[in-house]
Design a protein that fits this description.
With 485 residues, the protein is an alpha+beta fold. It is built from 17 helices and 14 strands. 48% of the residues lie in helices and 13% in strands. The strands form four sheets. A six-stranded mixed β-sheet has the order 2-1-10-11-7-6, with no helix packed on it. Strands 5-8-9-12 form a four-stranded mixed β-sheet. A hairpin with a 5-residue loop joins strand 13 and strand 14 (358-359).
C-alpha cells in the first residue's frame, strides 16, 4: 500500500545513529538540520497517497491487487515507461527536481533487479529468492531506500583488497551460519539520513582479490553498527525560508556511512563474494537503465525550474525584450528540451530484453547522461550572465525590511517596474539559491558527477551506440565511387 507522510515520518524514529556537528541526533524528524527535508519527503508520500492521484502514482500489486507506488513497477512496454515518467515527474515537480535521491530512485533500480532475477540466481537460487522477497516487502510497504555503492576516496590507485588496511571499504568481515558481518565505510549516502533501508553494493569495477567487497545487501538504517555521518547541513542556521527558500526545505543530505560490524541476515543478502555478478546486477540487467530513467525524468523538472526562473528574472528587469537576452534564454530552453527529448526517445525506442523487461534505449539514455555533466554547469553560467550583479546586490536578510531606518530605501532602490522590492528580493534570493549558494554548489557537483567520472558514462555511450548502422552509411558512400577509369 502507498503510505502516508505521517507513516513515513514515524518509521524514521528507529534509534538510528546519525551524527552532525559532533553530536548524535536523537530524532532526525525533529532536528533543525533534517526536519524540513523529512517534511518535504513526507509531502511526496502524501501526494502519492491522494485518491485523485491514484491513477498516475500507483498500479495494482501483482501479488495483492492493492495499489502500490508506480516506481516499483518493472516496465514491460513503452507505455509502462511513459506511465513511470508521469508518476516520477509528479514527484520531481513537487521538489523542483532538487531531491535527487527521492524514494523512487533506488526503487527504480530494484524494479530492474526484480526483472533480472536470473542474474542473482547464478550465485544460488536462494539469493534470487531473497531479492524477490525483499522487493515484495519494499514495494508493499512503500519503503524508502538509499544506497551506498561507491568506495571512499582513500587510494584510488589500488584495488579494494590492496588498501592500507583491510575493511576500509564495506566488506565481509565474518561469515556466520545465520548471515554475514559487514565492516567498513561507503559513500555517498545521499538521503540516508531520511530513508528506511540502505542498499549496500559496489558499482565500481572490482578485481580478483576483491571478493569480500563484492556483495549486494540491504540494511535497516537503525541496525546496530550503522553510523551515518553527515556533511554540513544547509538547512540549519539559515535566517529564514524567505532568504534561503531551497536550502531550508530540500536538503536531502549526503553522508559517509560506516558499517561497524553490522550483522546482515542471509535473507537480506542478494549477491555474495561474486565480482562478476556485482557488476552484472547493474549493467547486464536493466537496473542501471531503469534507475537512470528516473534520474533523467527528475533532471527534466530541475531544468524546467531553472529555465523558468531565469526567464522570470529577465522579465522582471525588462531585459527579456532584448534580442541578445532572448537568444540566451533560447539557448537554455533548447538544452532543457534536448534532455526531455532524449528521455522520450529512450522510451519510444525501448528494447524488450530476454526477460520481457522494457529497457530505455541505452543509446539515448547514455547520451543524456554524457551531456549532463557539462550541460548543467553551462546552463548555470548562462543564468549567471543573465542575472548579473543583481544576485549579490540584495539585503542581508528579510529582517532588513523590518528596520524602519532602511526599509524605505530598500523599497525605493531595490525594485523593478511592476515588481515591489520585497517581491524582487524574494525572486532574486531564489535565483541565488539555484546558482550561487552553497546549496547550489552542491547541486552543481551532484549533476557533474551523478554518473561517476565523465569517461565512465562516455564509455557506456560508446558501447551502446548503433555503430553498425553508422558505419554502414560510410561504407555505402565508399562503395559509390572509386578511382577514375
Amino acid at each position: 500500500m502507498v503510505r502516508s507522510g505521517a507513516e513515513y515520518i514515524e518509521g524514521l524514529r528507529d534509534g538510528r545513529a546519525v551524527y552532525v556537528n559532533g553530536e548524535r541526533v536523537s530524532d532526525v524528524t525533529a532536528h533543525p538540520a533534517f526536519a524540513a527535508g523529512v517534511r518535504s519527503v513526507a509531502h511526496l508520500y502524501d501526494l502519492a497517497s491522494r485518491p485523485d492521484m491514484a491513477e498516475i502514482m500507483t498500479y495494482p500489486s501483482p501479488t495483492t491487487g492493492h495499489p502500490i507506488n508506480r516506481a516499483w513497477k518493472t516496465p514491460r512496454s513503452a507505455e509502462d515507461l511513459r506511465a513511470r515518467r508521469r508518476a516520477i515527474g509528479c514527484w520531481a515537480d513537487a521538489s523542483y527536481g532538487l531531491i535527487g535521491r527521492s524514494p523512487d530512485h533506488v526503487a527504480s533500480f530494484f524494479a530492474g533487479f526484480a526483472g533480472s532475477l536470473d542474474i542473482f540466481a547464478r550465485g544460488g537460487q536462494r539469493f534470487a529468492d531473497n531479492l524477490q522477497r525483499f522487493y515484495d516487502k519494499a514495494s508493499q510497504e512503500d519503503l524508502y531506500l538509499a544506497y551506498t555503492i561507491v568506495h571512499p576516496q582513500i587510494d584510488r590507485s589500488k584495488p579494494a583488497h590492496q588498501q592500507p588496511e583491510p575493511h576500509l571499504f564495506a566488506s565481509v568481515a565474518e561469515e556466520r551460519s545465520d548471515g554475514i558481518v559487514v565492516r567498513g565505510a561507503m559513500m555517498v549516502g545521499t538521503g540516508a539520513v531520511m530513508s528506511d533501508y540502505i542498499f549496500l553494493s559496489c558499482i565500481l569495477p572490482l578485481r580478483p582479490g576483491d571478493e569480500d567487497y563484492a556483495i549486494s545487501v540491504v540494511v535497516p538504517n537503525g541496525a546496530p553498527g550503522v553510523k551515518i555521518m553527515c556533511r554540513r547541513p544547509y538547512a540549519q542556521g539559515q535566517p529564514s525560508v524567505f532568504d534561503y527558500p531551497l536550502s531550508t526545505r530540500f536538503d536531502e543530505t549526503d553522508s559517509l556511512i560506516v558499517f561497524d560490524d553490522v550483522f546482515v541476515p542471509w535473507e537480506h543478502v542478494f549477491i555474495y563474494r561474486d565480482i562478476v555478478n556485482t557488476r552484472a546486477q547493474f549493467y547486464e540487467g536493466p537496473a542501471h537503465l531503469i534507475g537512470n530513467h528516473q534520474a533523467q525524468v527528475r533532471f527534466i523538472s530541475k531544468l524546467k525550474f531553472l529555465v523558468g526562473l531565469a526567464r522570470r528574472v529577465c522579465v522582471m528587469t525588462g531585459a527579456e525584450t532584448l534580442p541578445q537576452v532572448q537568444a540566451q534564454l533560447g539557448e537554455l530552453a533548447a538544452r532543457a528540451a534536448l534532455v526531455e527529448g532524449l528521455v522520450v526517445a529512450s522510451e519510444t525506442e525501448c528494447l524488450i530484453d530476454q526477460n520481457g523487461v522494457a529497457r530505455p534505449n541505452p543509446a539515448f539514455a547514455y547520451a543524456n547522461m554524457t551531456v549532463q555533466s557539462s550541460l548543467y554547469p553551462e546552463m548555470l553560467q548562462i543564468f549567471r550572465d543573465l542575472a548579473g550583479g543583481g544576485l549579490i546586490a540584495l539585503p542581508s536578510s528579510a529582517a532588513d525590511f523590518a528596520n524602519p531606518e532602511i526599509a524605505a530605501q530598500l523599497e525605493r532602490y531595490v525594485q523593478s517596474p511592476g515588481t515591489p522590492s520585497r517581491e524582487k528580493v524574494k525572486l532574486m534570493k531564489l535565483a541565488w539559491e539555484m546558482i550561487g549558494s552553497e546549496f547550489a554548489g552542491r547541486h552543481l557537483l551532484y549533476e557533474m558527477f551523478y554518473a561517476g567520472a565523465p569517461f565512465v558514462v562516455k564509455g557506456h555511450a560508446y558501447r551502446t551506440y548503433d555503430w553498425a548502422s553508422a558505419e554502414a552509411l560510410v561504407q555505402h558512400c565508399l562503395d559509390g565511387y572509386g578511382l577514375p577509369a
